[in-house]
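Task 17 of the worksheet. Students: predict the tertiary structure of the chain below and write it out as structure tokens. Keep your answer in the requested format; marks are given for formatting as well as content.
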Amino acid sequence: MQTLLEVKDLRKEFGGVVAVKDLSFTLEVRPGSRLGIIGPNGAGKTTTFNMITGTFKPTAGIIEFDGERIDGLKPHKICKKGIVRTFQIVRVFPNLTVYEHVLRGAIVKKFSPDHKKRWGDEIEEMLELTDLQRSRNVLAKNLTTVQKKRLELATVLMTKPKLLLLDELMAGLNLVEIEETLKLLRKINEEMGIALIVVEHVMKAVMDLCERIIVLHYGEKIAEGSPHEIANNEEVIKAYLGEEAKYYA
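Model answer:
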């Protein structure tokens, strides 16, 4: 099986503080590649995302994507290679309409004579996928929380990524919205062939969605396995999940 992403002994220090300690994992190219990363606040989850996407340069370690080393590259170069992300605090351009916003996701594509028609068709498909068709002319700042999250998702998907990193996409959503989002993410993964790495505090969501889960604690990986294995791991339960995690066993 071909490896899409390989992280080797990844480390990030801020002064004397070790935020991520010698983290290693792989993600394969195949249907159903959905990896979850969980852990308490400050465990190093978002820092790991920041290193993979180029926001932070690792103190040590190697990141290889699609057979090419990418650690230390600028974020826009990593984006062009096929890695995109959403943010824990949703980021939108407030004074752009939904349509204009999604169009911005296409700017990393190479120009071609038929770009306007091609992008137009793709934008329509993306608006339909994320259920934003009726809001196409609404300013981003006037959207609801769930709509803003879907707009951010639609915009990054316009870059045609191979790997999508999701940082607490389901935070602040109600149960119905979470179920709808899980359905959307499975469609993105299974039908569009985009691998997912999900950082999430909504345990039911990450347990239902991901085939494999990594647990971080004080920047160090303390467990890796299936949702069943993670939910029954005594070290994980003690460090993070709590006794109620056995609900998922």
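Marker's comment: Residues 243-249 have pLDDT under 50 and may be disordered. Residues 92-160 form one domain.
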